[in-house]
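Protocol step 4 of 6: structure prediction from sequence.
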Amino acid sequence: MFCNRARGLFVASLGLIAFTGCEEPELKTNLRPEGPPEVLSVMVFTPSDDHALLESATFCKADDEKVPTLVGLPDGALTTICPSAGKVETAPPIGWYVRIQFDELLDPSVEDLTCMGEGSDLVCEGHLNMTLPVVLHCGTADLGYDGYYVPNGNSFTWPVGPNLTITPGAYVAAGSECSVSIKADAVKDKSGTAVPAGDLGPFTFKIAPMAFLGTDPPAAAEPPEVALGSVVTFIFNAPIDIASVTPDDFTVLQGTTPVPATVALNADAQTNVEVTVAGGFLAGQTYTITMNTGAEVADIGGATYAITAADNATVTVKIAATMPMP
């Protein structure tokens, strides 16, 4: 049997990360099967430029030798998780998830397995959207969610486990305060003992605020040459409500002459605002495009960000004289 536990993301263009192997481990390394199932850590997805799969602890159980300390990442790097943990405030607006790590194996009925095929061709996917063992809350509302149970893992390798991985079912505004709580009697170990009341949470974290990330092409001392038909892209860390962006938010100079801007949202990357002029840029011309200081943009959840002078939201490009040869 093949078991696919995929990190379901709200924005499909980000893709899926699959975890295989749904058989429970025979060697229960580092587990503590006696007593009730206790929460060792609560991890939140916090990728960095160096480690795309990095997670940080928003909770570590105090004075517990089983908590994850030095953990190996898939690329061979090491990261320190516990004993100290602070409230995570940098979960990315797109693609975040939460893992609740336990000190022992859980009753597998905590998740639904949807299976297809039979025998060696049997393929199963784990889901939490029917069993709903936790409450996921952001802003002023509880969120729908999915996720899966990882019945293996330990406190030394990524991802730490065993764990419940929780993935939101809808976009949450950048900057939102969030929490995850385990429902009383909803999560039990294999002997039927529930998570103790003191380990139910809530465990709090925060989605990173909106931010301007830069332009494509990036600003450079020597204006880059771009193909005829290009656009200049202004990139944010959250999906943009294009109704919040107007041509007046930009100043476009053809050489030294102001020309009107046109704006659109990139269909494939909704964090990207594309800027050009009516009919497109002209061959052989140089354009300087600035998103004006004070221009305010909103994400699809209603969070806003105002461009500042420190953003340096200006880029100059030179348009190629002719169309490239096929």
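Step 5 (inspection) to follow. The mean pLDDT is 89.
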